[in-house]
């Protein structure tokens, strides 16, 4: 919808906004919560927006490899309840592009610093586990690739064993 696209544009411009208004991320997050309460956006539309923003964030990290920029984006968006979307999107991209090392480095860093909670990390892996069958239509060895990601994350201690 046009309303959703308008809010997406505000979220995409958060990095610039925070230069002038340091707590812009928090203010936008509170405003979005109010928008859902007032039925301007449905919770499903908000989830869709968060998913799209997290996908963009994961793609930018995989392209640039800039961990400090990834951290800054994570904080700027001020959407910790949707961090599982970043985890799931990152895992999806790792399976699709074989960028396992970069994705594991990102998730490890976020987990070790507490920027992504253990709950959000587990939820992201669980959501990925649910979609691996669909992903295997395009990536025949998706199950094996995901299993490597999951086992490595568990072995390194930033994902609890299921």
What labels describe this entry?
162 residues, mainly alpha, 9 helices
Structure explained in plain terms:
This protein has 9 helices and no strands. The chain has helices spanning 2-12, 14-20, 24-37, 43-64, 67-77, 83-97, 100-113, 118-135, 142-155. The mean pLDDT is 89.
Give a quick rundown of the structure.
This protein is mainly alpha-helical and 162 residues long. The protein is 78% helix and 0% strand. It is globular, with a radius of gyration of 16 Å.
Shape: globular
Q: Kindly report the oligomeric state of this protein.
A: single chain
Low-confidence stretches: none
Instruction: Tell me the span between the first and last alpha carbons.
Output: 38 Å
Give the topology:
Layout: H1 2-12, H2 14-20, H3 24-37, H4 43-64, H5 67-77, H6 83-97, H7 100-113, H8 118-135, H9 142-155
Helix pairs in contact: 1-4, 4-5, 4-6, 6-7, 6-8, 6-9, 8-9
